[in-house]
Structures are given as structure tokens and as C-alpha cells.
């Protein structure tokens, strides 16, 4: 059941799993981004002083979720960035069945002294990846390799 935007961590045998939700697809994807970084760092300690524009495209809403989270993980791994908030727009180009996400991620560079990495997420997986439309909104489930 989707109530308002948010996320929760779920039990998983070997990796980490979360469920995120929102009243809209954008809110659910924002919550998924918050959950991803919530696994790795204390997002309450992030003082956002930079913005990163993000654009991803995919053939389905599930692949769009995968590409979105992969891009965030790329920014973490290769650019040393952590994020605490996001503004997103998701649209469908109907003639080509292309799902497009444009957004801004608000965050900061990882400070090797100040930023404590709780769990290092290695990869977003396709295992159990789901985007569900429910009566009260949208929920997503994601398993990440840790």
C-alpha cells in the first residue's frame, strides 16, 4: 500500500533490498534515489552544495528505474558524489515508446574524513526489480549488490 513518498529497507539473503513509493512515478523514483543513498551514507549529514543534471532513457519504466539508479551509482563511484534530494520529470515519447527521465540531483563531494560509507553498493541488479501501480500511487522494489 502506498501512503506518501518514502522508502523502507527489506530483508534479503545476500544483498540489500528496498521498497520506495510515492503518489507519482517521479516521487517513487525520488524515493528510490533517497533509499539508495540511505543505504550507503547518513543522508542527513549531506550538505548539498552542488547540482548534477541527469538524463536517462529506456524502453520501459522498469529499465528507466534501473538506468536512473545506475547513473546515481556511477556518480557515487566515479565522481565521488553523494546526493540527498532530487527533482525529476519523467515522460514517455509515445511514437517511439521511449521513457525519458530528466532531473537534478542535489548533493556534495565525498569528504574522505567526514563521509562515513556504511554499505558500499557495487551494482543495481535486475533481480526482483519492479515498478507497481497501486490505488494510492506507485511503488518500486530494488535489489542492490553489496
The CATH topology assignment is: Archease, Possible Chaperone, Chain: A, domain 1
Mean of pLDDT? 94
Element string (H = helix, E = strand): EEHEHEEEEE
Task: Report the total helices.
Answer: 2
Oligomer: single chain
CATH architecture: 3-Layer(bab) Sandwich
**DSSP, total strands:** 8
Number of domains: 1
CATH superfamily: Archease domain
Helicity range: 10-25%
Major β-sheet annotation: 5 strands, antiparallel
How big a fraction of the residues is strand? Answer: 35-45%
Distance between the first and last residues' Cα: 27 Å
CATH class: Alpha Beta
Shape verdict: globular
Which structural category fits the helices and strands? alpha+beta
Low-confidence stretches: none
Instruction: Return Rg in Å.
Output: 15 Å
What is this structure's SSE topology?
Elements: E1 6-10, E2 16-22, H1 25-40, E3 50-58, H2 61-79, E4 81-93, E5 98-109, E6 123-124, E7 130-134, E8 137-145
Helix pairs in contact: 1-2
Amino acid at each position: 500500500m502506498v501512503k506518501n513518498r518514502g522508502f523502507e529497507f527489506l530483508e534479503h539473503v545476500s544483498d540489500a533490498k528496498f521498497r520506495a513509493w510515492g503518489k507519482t512515478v517521479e516521487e517513487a523514483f525520488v524515493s528510490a534515489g533517497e533509499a539508495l543513498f540511505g543505504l550507503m551514507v547518513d543522508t542527513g549529514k549531506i550538505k548539498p552544495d552542488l547540482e548534477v543534471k541527469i538524463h536517462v532513457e529506456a524502453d520501459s519504466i522498469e529499465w528507466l528505474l534501473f538506468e536512473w539508479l545506475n547513473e546515481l551509482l556511477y556518480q557515487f563511484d566515479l565522481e565521488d558524489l553523494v546526493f540527498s534530494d532530487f527533482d525529476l520529470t519523467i515522460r514517455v515519447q509515445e511514437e517511439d515508446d521511449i521513457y525519458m527521465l530528466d532531473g537534478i540531483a542535489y548533493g556534495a563531494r565525498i569528504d574522505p574524513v567526514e563521509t562515513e560509507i556504511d554499505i558500499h553498493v557495487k551494482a543495481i541488479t535486475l533481480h526482483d526489480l519492479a515498478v507497481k501501480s497501486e490505488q494510492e500511487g506507485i511503488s518500486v522494489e530494488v535489489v542492490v549488490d553489496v
